[in-house]
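hi! just following up on the protien thing from before. the input was this:
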Amino acid sequence: MNTVTCIEDLRRSARRKVPRPFFEYADGGSYAEETLRANRADLQRIKLRQRVMVDVADRSLKASILGEPASLPIALAPIGLCGMQYGDGEILACRAAHAAGIPFTLSTMSICSIEDVAGAVDKPFWFQLYVMKDRGFMRALIERASAAQCSALVLTVDLQVLGQRHRDIKNGMTVPPELRLKNFLDIATKPAWAISVLRGKRKTFGNIVGQIKGMDNVNSLTQWISSQFDPALSWKDVEWIAGLWNGKLIIKGVLDVDDARIAAKSGAVALVVSNHGGRQLDGAPSSISALPKIADALGSEIEILFDGGIRSGQDVFRALALGARACLCGRAYIYGLGAGGEAGVARAIDIIRSELDVTMALTGVKNVRDISHQNIAAI
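and the predicted 3d structure came back as:
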């Protein structure tokens, strides 16, 4: 990890080490991937205001996220199939996040279960929930998250139907991978990955298998998942979930100001401006283009978090300058996980931390809480 200088280095390493279906599952987006690319392109268009001769000798990156202290203003976003990037990937990523002093979010579609992660770490983590047709299963998931003492529930609201991801279809992506010749040859060239996954606690969706009768094989599980996302999802469901969950509730997947206004009245303590990493509505605005309007309209009423395209400390700085309280980082740490397990995730966090620190110094900012629109260069 000593020769890794940026997140793109971790991405290249992960691409070499992780079988193609799982790397591209994390790396890709939906349909033509226009929104996936826009998330990055629109962030890069935002230019920072360089300042000189400002005393920045004593800088602080410390932040508050949901009222809890964090060493820097980021959290690890919910990503499905971490355990297929590296064995026990969710546990390793959670450990790295906690060691760095930032939150980790476990996905509903994780390989390690809620209980697996809770039993392997010493601090609470966030749990991300999808709204599914099987409300009994949802209730059970919420109860399990509560029993595991998860410190926040992240309710994802932008997946009422599943956006098609061409790469997953073309790669024949299943969990665990089916024993086809193409898959066998791919895995055979990645022995370190195979060993790590074989040693892992689980090889399929830990929060689902064993919880629902008849859902213990690859095909039926995949079919159940694809049929469970609920197109009848409404704000009444959010009210129902808020009534079941006694802790902090975060609404993730908001791009529209009108939706943000409703979210702010839902009982949630925070909302995440997000387009699901470009994995749902292709042609939707980039997350960063939607952020300022939502932050300006609702920033005094609800905590605004940002998700979509973060690959550097400069990107975190841009999002904070446009109104976010903190950022969720997804692919950046997933590349680290695939590249080197827990050490790779730690390296990804360190890269972003260092870049944010230097960016603050070169823009004349001493405290991360002071980053504002004044730090964006007029174009």
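Residues 247 and 325 are 20 Å apart (CA to CA).
DSSP finds 15 helices and ten strands in the chain.
cheers
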